[in-house]
Amino acid sequence: MAIHESFLEPKVHLSDDPYWLIHRFFFVVLRYRITKFFLSVLLLASTVIIILQTLIILETFNGIYFINYFMMYIGSILVWFTTYSIPQTKNFVTSGIRDLHRWDIKSAGPVVEKSIRKTALYEISFVVVNLMVAVLGAAAHAIPGKNDKDFFLALVVFERFFPTFETPLTFLYRISYFASTLVILAPFHMTIYFSGHLRAQISMLVTCLQNLNYGYDKMDLLKSVYDVKYQKEISRRLKFCIERHIRIYSTGTRALSTLRNYIMLYSVGGAMFGIGVVLYGVTFQSGIQGNYLRFFCMSSSFFLTFLHSIWMGQMTQDVTSPMFDALQQTGWYYWNNRNKKMFLMFLLNSRRTFRLQYSHNVTVNYQMGVSMLRSIFSMLTVLAHLKNDYYLETNSH
User: Organism's domain of life (predicted)?
Assistant: First the structure.
């Protein structure tokens, strides 16, 4: 029996998770002690490398030198931060999923189940493609190149501070790229997992709202105003939906608010890394030659993550619109005054939206995506003009 036919909390057996691949890869794997051990080693190694890289940059600082290593320096900071934040993000998301008291996706009928599975399939496909590109990029970075010391500041660190162990440290550093790429993407995919389940639960609640008058469609609606049994049943159904809405909204808001600071740091770090890629690509075009696969995979993974985050943020923001529309189309005008007051309060609260944001004015959505793309395009245009002016001035002398 579908949930909207009884308006009773379903007995849920969550044997079927539409986002099972993300759960297995980014939640189940983190339970193992060996995974926790590797994360601790990676965090410690990243801390040491960042400190030594900072010392070298401060000691031999100049504009060209900084631009040359800026991209990989920011990348190492991103690896450190994501490694540090993975346990916290996992705990926040796991707690949020538990507090949702999820309904099974079959609870609202086959149509809603098919819609949820379809959206989950799109998101999982996106995640798989992104992971494949990231692993390919890790392999490209692990393969030695001709001018790697002009690209990886960590190799300069090994040569200068650990000359005796330079070869094994270089090998371990290259191999660590496979772990680093997955670590950087882990918190992002954990957020996708929570957002997907949040939207799925709201979709099933919307089905209940669309069927508040289920079973009474053929009755005389004029007589229903004085039908005590009908009014009591509507009151029960409204209370059921309101309680479910309160649980979903409070859980979602609490989890997203907790993740706000992390979202801000992920966004700022990702934006700085993207700027580093652009700066290196425009300033050191000769350095790209022979490293096309590295730059292609790096840029593609960054762009795919950026697109998915914008899409996820917009979908999370828009998820409450169907709820408000469903309530508006409900035949509330034949309810008694008590039910109408309850309905009006519910209608007003249903307009509150979920937002992936890191400040009250900045939200992850399509508008933010367009603004960032415009900024990147403007920066590329300015850099191209500056580079042309520099070459013209150099050739004239």
Answer: Eukaryota
CA–CA separation, 226 vs 220, rounded Å? 11
Whole-number Cα distances in Å, 394 to 52, 228, 286, 312, 397: 35, 89, 17, 47, 5
Neighbours of 319 (CB within 10 A): 21
Backbone angles phi, psi at 102, to 5 degrees: -60, 140
Give one DSSP letter per residue of 295-357, joined into a string.
HHHHHHHHHHHHHHHHHHHHHHHHTTHHHHHHHHTS-GGGS-HHHHHHHHHHHHHTT-----B
Q: Quick check: 126 and 172 in contact, CB under 8 A? A: no
> Contact at 8 Å (CB) between 275 and 111?
no
List, for residues 346-393, the tens digit of each pLDDT value: 998 888 777 766 556 666 666 666 776 676 677 667 656 655 554 444
Q: HSE-up of 121 (CA within 13 Å, CB side)?
A: 6
Residue with token string 């035949």: 331
Question: How many other CB atoms sit within 10 Å of the CB of residue 344?
Answer: 12
Percent of the residues in the chain that have a pLDDT greater than 90, as a whole number: 22
According to DSSP H, which parts of 211-227 are helical?
A: 221-224
| Phi, psi dihedral angles at 350 (to 5 degrees) | -70, -15
Count CB atoms within 10 A of the CB of residue 20.
13
**Could you tell me the CA-to-CA distances from 186 to 23, 39, 122, 251 in Å, in that order?**
11, 12, 18, 22
Rg (CA), the chain: 26
Per-residue pLDDT tens for 44-103? Answer: 999 999 999 999 888 876 666 777 788 888 889 989 999 999 998 899 899 989 898 889
Phi, psi for 316 (deg, rounded to 5): -65, -35
Q: How many CB atoms lie within 10 A of CB 141?
A: 26
Report the candidate in 245, 251, 195 with the shortest Cα–Cα distance to residue 347: 245
Q: How far is residue 244's CA from residue 101's CA, in Å, rounded to a whole number?
A: 9
CA angle 260, 250, 211 (to 5 degrees): 130
